[in-house]
Prior knowledge:
With 174 residues, the first copy, chain A, is an alpha/beta fold. Helix content of chain A is 20%, strand content 33%. The longest helix of chain A is centred in the middle third of the chain and has 10 residues, at 93-102.
Amino acid sequence: MPVSVFVGTSVDGFIARANGTFDFLGGDDTEPHGYEEFFATVDAVVMGRNTFEVVAAFPSWPYEQKRVVVLSSKPVDLSPGRAARLEQMSGEPHEIVTKLAATGAHHLYVDGGITVQRFLNAGLVDRITVTRVPVLIGSGIPLFGVVPRDIALRHIATNTYRGGLVKSEYEVVK
Amino acid sequence: MPVSVFVGTSVDGFIARANGTFDFLGGDDTEPHGYEEFFATVDAVVMGRNTFEVVAAFPSWPYEQKRVVVLSSKPVDLSPGRAARLEQMSGEPHEIVTKLAATGAHHLYVDGGITVQRFLNAGLVDRITVTRVPVLIGSGIPLFGVVPRDIALRHIATNTYRGGLVKSEYEVVK
Lengths: 174, 174
């Protein structure tokens, strides 16, 4: 089952500030850059508890009726999610993929720094689309982390947008 | 005087491994991506001692007869540089720029992680060209570091290359 990452970062590679906010990404003012088209192709979103808590505080739940899985080994209060299709799982990335595949998922969208890093390190990410916002913020939550060995990527396509976004799509070489 | 950065990084933002090597950038096998054209426009290269020591160990000195300035507050043995136009300076970035402008430089090329970060934080970098090599290495010497405040960039152009390089050029908004 393909696993994709689709994420915005500063040019220096942060997905959020240290406190979890990501005002620098532009929010609702961000130019359309293919997120909706991507989102339409996935049938489950997988994220960690930190990302869930940030997203749950949004004025509206952004994942519509898509199946959302919050990874946590400790109990998580899912009520702030307000979503009909919200569940908690725990375990290693390959267990999560197996469980989701067994319950009908065909394309996973993995989100959040720690979760992306865990799935990457487990060799389970197939595609990474990074959209770089033209700003340096200097510190925060990085998209990428330590890897057990070099991970080769294959560049698929890069698109640029009027406001300065640069979106690059890579396939993970396995 | 314009100050430019022109640098290759992994997709996760490293210019070198922790030990200073940068095999992952492709070395002599790197597809032409505008470096020679850029290099022809600069008349002085500014780097820190660490970068100098790495470059001095190359089989051949890569800066030809271009003026090269090694920044260091401690004495540096310049003899490994084998270059006719090699000098040491110390001081704050704006002092370096002033000294170089006073001695005939018109376009500086600032290289090396710490030096790039110092010049960026001093508000002295005008243009940043980052060429991303399609690999994640996970740790090493990062191009960017902590910044005193957000640094806005203006995207100028992005080019992609057959081997998977993605080169993005930014102007620093002042």
